[in-house]
Specification:
About 35% of the residues lie in helices and about 20% in strands. Strand 4, helix 6 and strand 5 form a beta-alpha-beta unit. Helix 5 crosses helix 6. The two termini are about 35 Å apart. The structure holds flavin-adenine dinucleotide. The site of flavin-adenine dinucleotide has 34 residues, from helix 3, strand 2 and strand 9. Flavin-adenine dinucleotide binds next to helix 3, strand 2 and strand 9.
């Protein structure tokens, strides 16, 4: 979805331009930098990084407030919704590497904040900036915001085409999709697609076609490549991320179950974070080592040099793994061998079920 001005009804008041957070850079003091993980091992296992988000969100629910976060809905679309219970947090836990539909949630969150309800809003830095723009007020006391270091959000259209391709291959509907499964560990994260017929297909960041295209910046939203929200211009009270580089930054802490990087930007954020007792936290003395391992914290992703050609081919021929592979750096020999082994159980399964 792209914003367009309908010139037939535009009265040229420029309010859309004035209120749009895009391109407006607000410098903030350097944040406090921490490493952290939730002590509950099961929650950490099902979280993308160290599970810090669940601790921050659970505190809001316990105070009777509402938490906004992103779910995958039944039509495999990422959507931001309001959650009212601790059990409900399971649906918004975990990264969905997609641009989420958030317009309704931003309007609903602003409405609740204006009515005095306590709200924790989590989303991409631009969604948090959007909420502040809608409220027209910096940091109301009943609102806590959490954003994350953002590599950019991939095109939902390409993801839908990818899901349809998988469904054709398995002759069954995808009922669950995880972008960050830890079955091979935190660092070598996997995708897992579960189908209605019981099939399961998984791939790693080196073998899954969708993840490879995401990480090689082939189909991020164009606005992501111009994003100005970084280390000291991020809008939220608290920023969470993966503590990539943990093996050299804090090797004694790194057991590959997941560690979060945490940036505290405001006093309210610091107070909120410090009162979450279920977190095991340690200081990170400098941002310097993060520059090499987490570049998205310091500037936008550079588009793949054949991004436009990919989208032209996609419009002409539609989506297929073959055409995607024409644009991506090929996986190494080891990854190809792993991919072949990985597909064996699924192929046997299909044959046993007579669906070959
Ligand atoms: C598109 C995207 C790009 C990212 N890029 C980086 C990166 O370059 N470097 C890095 O260190 N970390 C990145 N992250 C953040 C990282 O993947 C984890 O989300 C973060 O470390 C929090 O993990 P957690 O274990 O604390 O909690 P989790 O439970 O895993 O966190 C989930 C939180 O992320 C929100 N969320 C999930 N998907 C979306 C979405 N599509 N849109 C908006 N909000 C969403 C949920 O609502 C929830 O608040 C990215 C996340 C996303 C969604």
């Amino acid at each position: 979805m792209y914003p367009v001005v309908d010139s037939a009804i535009c009265i040229a008041c420029d309010l859309c331009e004035k209120s749009c957070p895009g391109g407006k850079e607000i410098r903030r003091p350097e944040p406090q930098i921490l490493g952290s993980q939730i002590t509950d091992q099961e929650i950490r296992r099902v979280s993308s990084s160290g599970g810090v988000f669940t601790a921050l969100a659970a505190r809001m629910i316990r105070q009777g407030g509402v938490v906004f976060g992103t779910i995958m809905n039944e039509s495999m679309t990422a959507e931001t919704v309001g959650i009212f219970s601790e059990e409900g947090l399971a649906a918004i836990r975990g990264s969905k590497y997609l641009q989420s539909q958030s317009a309704d949630a931003i309007a609903d969150a602003a409405d609740l904040v204006n009515k005095g309800v306590r709200v924790l809003f989590s989303g991409t830095p631009c969604q948090v900036a959007g909420l502040y723009a809608k409220l027209g007020e910096a940091h109301p006391s009943n609102l806590m915001t959490v954003d994350f270091v953002c590599h950019g959000t991939p095109s939902p259209g390409v993801f839908n085409a990818y899901i349809k391709t998988l469904e054709k291959l398995h002759n069954s509907r995808v009922v669950r999709f995880s972008f960050r499964d830890k079955r091979l560990g935190w660092k070598d994260f996997s995708t897992v697609a579960v189908f209605e017929n019981g099939d399961v297909e998984s791939g790693t960041q080196k073998t899954d076609p969708f993840l490879r295209g995401f990480l090689q910046n082939l189909y991020l939203r164009p606005s992501c490549h111009e994003c100005h929200l970084r280390f000291d211009t991020l809008p939220a009270d608290i920023t969470i991320a993966d503590l990539w580089g943990a093996d050299s930054i804090c090797p004694e802490r790194d057991d590959d179950t997941g560690l979060s990087l945490v940036l505290l930007h405001s006093d309210a954020g610091r107070e909120w974070f410090e009162s979450c007792r279920e977190l095991d936290t340690f200081p990170i003395p400098s941002a310097e080592p993060l520059k090499r391992v987490n570049p998205s914290l310091f500037g936008p992703s550079t588009p793949h040099k054949r991004r436009s050609q990919f989208f032209r081919a996609y419009a002409r021929e539609g989506f297929s793994f073959e055409s995607l592979n024409r644009f991506l750096a090929p996986p190494g020999r080891l990854e190809r061998a792993i991919e072949r082994i990985r597909r064996i159980p699924s192929a046997i399964g299909r044959r046993l079920h007579g669906r070959q």
